[in-house]
## 1
Amino acid sequence: MSGQALPLEITDLRTTLFTRRGEMKAVDGLSLTVGAGETVALVGESGCGKSLSALSVMRLLPDPPARIVGGQVRLNGRDIVPLPEETMLGIRGKEIGMIFQDPISSLNPVATVEKQIVEVLMTHTELGRGQARVRAHELLELVGMPDAARRLDAYPHQLSGGMCQRVVIAMAIACSPSVLIADEPTTALDVTVQAQVLALLKKLQADAGMAMIFITHDLGVVAETADRVVVMYAGRKVEEASVDELFENPLHPYTVGLIGATPTPGAERAERLADIPGMVPPLNALPQGCAFAPRCKRVMDRCLTEKPALTVPGPGRLVACFAAQGG
Amino acid sequence: MAGELASPTPALRGSARRTAALRLLRRRLIQAVPLMLGVVIINFCLIQMAPGSFLELMTAENQVSDPATVALLRKTYGLDDPVWMQLLKYIWALLHFDFGFSYRQNMPVIQAIWIHLPATILLMVSSIALAISIGVAAGVVASMKVRTFWDSLVSIAAMFFYAAPSFWLGIMMIVLFSVKLGWLPVGGMMKIGGNGGVLDILHHLILPTLALGLFYAAIYTRVMRSSMLEVAQLDFVRTARAKGLSRNKVTIHHVLRNALLPVVTILGVQMGTVLAGSVVIESVFSWPGVGSLLFDSVSSRNYPVVLGIMVLGSLVVIAANIAVDLIYMWLDPRIEIR
């Protein structure tokens, strides 16, 4: 960690939702780092704080009700949490790019593909309109858009979901950002297109050496894309490991449950997928102890009263669980 | 690219969009024919059901009591024919652009309307332009300053102008701006003895335009505000913010154009009521338009003129709706050849 600053370094990030029903800690002390060329997957069920973490890094939280109440987000060494909005305008789209879940609704329905790509180029670069058009065409070819020249004039509704996602990716990487956040970029796509988009993201990342945060709830996608995995539950990091270690030897009972709930090809058909009983607790009614305790198979007395802190069970690994620590 | 073969729709270029627009235009024009026929039949029947005939008033006003003259007049105006025959004759005449004769103006109906038409078109166009510009601007401001003092101010103003009857608003404005302050003329379209200079007409146009337009401005403000707020929640707005665009740029380039669509929709629907509203406003301000002519013709049971105005009014509304359809198509590329 010495010498050059990492592209992205999140320390103790806390994001709270201020609602009428009280304050909810949507992201509660998240720390993670992403190195250049590295992909960190952020995994968890809906509502565990994955997307709000990403929006916190972009400083695009819906305010009200969400606000960052503490922590640091260091982008290439600079903490962006205290920066004024005008400074953030120069960072979003230039130093951090973001890809969203539903590609078709992520594009403006009444603007052409070209206009939407040119816009980001003209915001952050010195290119004139003509040069920006040429660059937009190059970008579309770079993201593997079939028949790119003709697609420049197309409107989003004339493209398939996969093609729209390629356009969104082209916009996100247009200014060669050092960090790319992909928030469930393949969830809304067909399986075949999913594989293409994943391959594309990997290639672009390798070519440009971008740091990537990959948010997903699909462990199959994690296995395919990530170098490291951060498992989140109810706003907190519960486990972190390299992707191989995580699948070989998951430590947290929640991770074990997630992996058990993923279908494996070749398994007996009659075999029922394991599920995790119960539901994610509402953020304003978290139990006093470990948030996962009410659903946990290995729950102990201590889990109900004390919150487990992150411990280091091995090199490069973190887990927040009393049972995994051996009581 | 297995999954992407699904939609090989070619991009619609300029010329393709023009063809689509022409196709839409042609279809709307064809649809207008049965519509106009319906309008003519219904209006004709309504007038037949109205009490009294213009002949009674005409003979009374001119103190004609000679039965032979009355009979001659009845024959001239075809009032002895059965109603269905009169209707067929009327439709036949309409097909030759013959709207009948107005005894009161002593000229063909079409000519009487033609003289009054420019004033009404001017009033309608200026009122709609005012309504759209104020409505859109106020709606955008209210949505950007949502739940602040400015938002409340806009909402209260919109509520006031929506609730106030336009004739009352017109009279109150005359009292304030013409009688008390003396800034603007009480009525008419130009100074007595004036030569109809542009400035003089504009000076006379201000109050009637405000009286007619502010009601619609109020509606557009409310629609625009809620439409802006709705569009601002959509995913592509977040994408635009993630590109590093400022809030103002996002609002103007991404939210505004999408939010305009419902305003354009109701504009088309309301074209007819703007015309109806101008009848009232023209009477209040003695504006020499078709509305004044209609009001005068109804009072004098000058039915050929009344019928003629209704038919021409329907034509104007149909034409305006076609224009709105074309604007809608231009604004929203998703509307395509159907």
Note: Chain A has two domains: 8-95+177-319, 105-174.
## 2
Amino acid sequence: MKGKAALKTGGLIALWIVVALFLLFPFYYAVVSSFREGSAIFEASLWPANPTFANYEAVMTDQPFAKNILNSLIVAFSVVVLSLGLATFASYAFGRAKFKGRRLLLYTILGVSMFPQVAVLSGLFEIVRLFGLYNNLLSLVFSYMIFTLPFTVWVLTSFVRDLPVEIEEAAIMDGASSWTIVTKVFLPLLAPALVTTGLLAFIAAWNEFLFALSFTLTNEQRTVPVAIALISGASQYELPWGNIMAASVIVTVPLIVLVLFFQKKLVAGLTAGAVKG
Amino acid sequence: MTARSAIDKARARSAWIFVAPMLIVLALVAAWPLARTIWFSMTNATLVDLTTYDFIWFDNFIVHADGRWYGIFTDPQWLRALWNTLVFAAVSVSLELVLGVIVALIVNAALPGRGLMRAAMLVPWAIPTVVSAKIWQWMLNDQFGVVNAMLEGAGFIDGPVAWLGGSSLAMVSIIMVDVWKTTPFVALLVLAALQTLPKEIYEAAKVDGIHPVKVFFKVTLPLIKPALVVAVIFRLLDAMRMFDLVYVMTGSSEETMTLSVFARQALVSFQDVGYGSAASTGLFLIIALITVIYIMTLKPLGREKAA
């Protein structure tokens, strides 16, 4: 009996290792490739023979990649601040107040989160042109609201519902205004939820591709995903894979660190958005 | 007037003021552009000049002229894109669901290192889609790719395989990458559901000597079904609008082109806003239909609390 249990545990651990290898290998291989230069990159070996930083230097000097990273940071931070600001007040109303049309509104917002982005592309093109925002980062901050607002509102609303009502009611009885209640009472209580939703909004904005590809034109205005997708070599068949892998590692490592650091909160936020939503 | 109703009144008064800014932004970024896209789908507008165009009713969708049919519904490329999208969505979501449940069951075992395993599951999810597309494109490279090298080394293939070249293998590859990237996400959702299940049932089943496979189908599966339904819907809608993975890995190759890639190509590359908008509207209607079905299934699942 004991032998059987040990065998079962051994089998499970073997399965875990297989799954983990499958999940982690591609990124490991990207890291390995990014440290290989010249003809060494074409040897499909599993470790770098003579590691070099040449690809990292090349990707920063061949194109304005530092500017691309800055662009992505500016866009993602603005999107987070704007959507959290708008969603905090909305979620207070949705989570606490009973008003006509609340349920319909919430479902409409849920519907918006399922929009195919391409369905608003021509309409957004028109707005972006009208305000002269083509090839301007503001066009991205604006258009990203379509996918960050719905889920920040939904996730925050579900958090607001779970908060105790007593503190807030005491504040109302003391004659505090709704504004004071949201900013002084709710905001501190919501802080952990804001970190989670903010992080999810940040990741979504950092990764977005379709709008960034369509609303920017020049190298200097591109965000990271578009810059990486459009890295090109002398010809279509000579892509500088070393540079591409180096760029990929640069933008992914901070993201992985962030995700692993906030692991528990993120999973809670994701499941709140999906399971409760 | 009671204290409670006074509080409710105060809340209801401020509710609209608090909701309004968010609604205005959402109207500007979603409702208005969608309405304009639908409008443009009935015009012959071009990207060069969005202000001068003729209203041509449904000619972008379907029209009979000079003894021939025109419009997206008769366009072989659009129909191919529709087929590709449906195949991609159906196959990738089914695989992700089955593998997601299996991975969740494996990881749910109480062994040391479970935390590490969960961390590993978040890695593919954390990698930006464009980056995963590039990494896999490199790994699947026909001449220098590590996948061909490994398969050749193990004797599974004789010569290099053109994974992403213009054949049906390209779709298989793209589905594989999507499965790699998204299965962990499905598994995390299933894992969250598994952890809410009462342990007593499983102990009782063990005492009664019921086979674990039977326990899974008779007990576990029905209990995690609501979570699975939500996961499937979310994944399905995501898969139906697939753009970045396909665009980066195979460009506008006909073998893999999805509806989103088709619509953007017509709109931006060919500058045909009318035709591109018609293609977008078509995709929107398909997704709207799935969304309506989803929202209608929410209620029977006892999700009253959510609204």
Note: The first helix of chain B runs from residue 3 to 40.
